[in-house]
Design brief:
Helix content: over 70%
Number of helices: 2
Order of helices and strands: HH
Number of strands: 0
Mean pLDDT: 80
Structural class: mainly alpha
Shape: elongated
Distance between the termini: 111 Å
Strand content: under 5%
Largest sheet: none
């Protein structure tokens, strides 16, 4: 029971105390100078409204970024796995055999222009 009283009930009392203080401060500010009160309230409400205004658009853009990142990661993973597959197939294909000569060691064919007619 002590935990409920100190943690839960104490938290609710603290929240109520802060709400009463803010309400009293707003009432006093309106009584002293209504113009400053309106500007002050607008300035404190503005930071909470901006995320709500752009939240849907931001969520849509963030979703498309996640999809593009997943697509990019899949391509990179497929390329890496494909390269390993090609290298392992190349090794197993030439196992016990001699590989073909390098392309520079193939005999060159004489071009048709250089042949006498």
């Amino acid at each position: 029971m002590d935990t409920v009283e100190t943690d839960w009930l104490g938290g609710i009392i603290d929240i109520f105390q802060v709400v009463v203080q803010i309400t009293f401060a707003v009432v006093m500010l309106v009584c002293i100078n209504p113009l400053i009160a309106i500007l002050s309230i607008a300035a404190t409400v503005l930071p909470t409204l901006v995320p709500r205004l752009f939240g849907r658009h931001l969520a849509a853009v963030q979703g498309s970024i996640v999809e593009e990142t997943q697509r990019y990661n899949a391509r990179v993973r497929d390329s890496a796995i494909g390269g390993d597959t090609v290298r392992s197939h190349h090794r197993s294909c030439w196992k016990g055999m001699t590989p073909p000569p390098a392309p520079s060691s193939f005999p060159r064919r004489a071009s048709r222009r250089s042949r006498p007619s």
